[in-house]
Amino acid sequence: MPERQDLDLIIEKINKKFNEFKETNDAAEEQRSARNGEALAETQEKLDKINADITELRKEQNQLEKIINRPKVKNDIEMTPELELHNRAYEKFIRFGNGETGQAQFTDEEKRALAGTADTDGQFLVPIDFESELIMNAYDMAAVRPLCQVGTTSRDVVQLGALSKPTVAWGKRAIAVTEQTLDAGGMQVRIFNLRALTLISNDTLDDAEADVMGELRDAFEMALAEAEDDAFIAGADADTPPGIMSNSVVLARYKATGVADAIADATHNGMDAVQQLYYGVKATYRRNGTFAMNSTTEALFRALKNGEGDYYWEPSMQAGTPVSLMGRPVVNPEGMADVAANSYPAVFGDFRSGYKIRDRAGMTMTRLIERYAEYDQVGILIKKRTGGQVTLPEAFCPLKVAAS
């Protein structure tokens, strides 16, 4: 398929560019050693250009991998007569409204099918196949969600059960019950509303051949994926799920770069801190650990190497193998902080063990007619309900840009 060929080509370009990057970076280091820490301007300019090119190619690689790995959810849902009826009625609703204007003639069966899916606010629930496909497509376009444990709920607040850490004793020795054991309890995941708005022209809605539901799915899936990524990794206000990098217990586990405003300097090669991140979580979590950082930060780590001159960052060797740092995958939630004094630009950890996501079933769409009538367009507002919570802070170790 074309996407697979395109991905192979991009990976080949990245590997070629990275070889050029290593040669140029090695030359720049030699020049800095001979010229009091300063490389030739043309060498530095060439190095920065190659690094920027790799960063852009990495973004293309991420996007193509998401498209190629996109599951065909619709094929897994049995299209019963009831679902077909609801889908037909729902598309009429999206195209023409509720039918009271005379633009669309609903059959009595279609009216009953549509009315039977109204939520407590009177909004119509989207068809199950549309919701499933939108969620799964957004899932594969996201960086954080695929790494975490995801479940569904019918509640606004999810109570997660919790066990205390078992205490052990050999032989007939008494097992002590600690205060920590007695305090063990559940954890709550609050469900939040995520809304997205797109405009669609009346000409498209009137066109019987137009795939309206497909266009809406394509319009919303990337927006939902990006909004969720930002929230799950860095959400910090009252209207979003609390993110990993806003959890005070996670942040307290930080390892410092050793440099006040950078990841490396003349006396800190930058990899010492990365190794501390890696070993900052227990072996149980390291085995499933992933480095997370935005694309700009990844570009900075690309130049780091060990005392033998080996680079820690490695590109994909072939489609299906991830970019890695110290042998562990790297993902790029773009909502993470850039490198700056006192920022937390990277984190390593076992996301599946440490962060839980809960989706509440029942996605709705609302037609906004009058607000955009003068533009001959209809607003389509979608509402999804989801939440997330750090459940095991010890599964993460963040990097802080600080001297200590």
Summarize the structure in words.
It is a single chain. α1 (about 1-35) runs antiparallel to α2 (about 40-70). About 40% of the residues lie in helices and about 20% in strands. It has helices spanning about 1-35, 40-70, 80-95, 110-115, 130-140, 180-185, 200-205, 210-235, 250, 270-280, 285, 295-300, 350-355, and strands at about 150-155, 155-160, 185-190, 190-200, 255, 290-295, 315, 325, 330, 345-350, 355-370, 375-390, 395-400. The longest helix is centred in the first third of the chain and has 33 residues, at about 1-35. The two termini are about 50 Å apart. Strands 5-13-10-6-9-8-7 form a seven-stranded mixed β-sheet. It contains 13 helices and 13 strands. It is of the alpha+beta class and about 400 residues long. The model has no long low-confidence stretch (mean pLDDT about 85). The chain is globular.
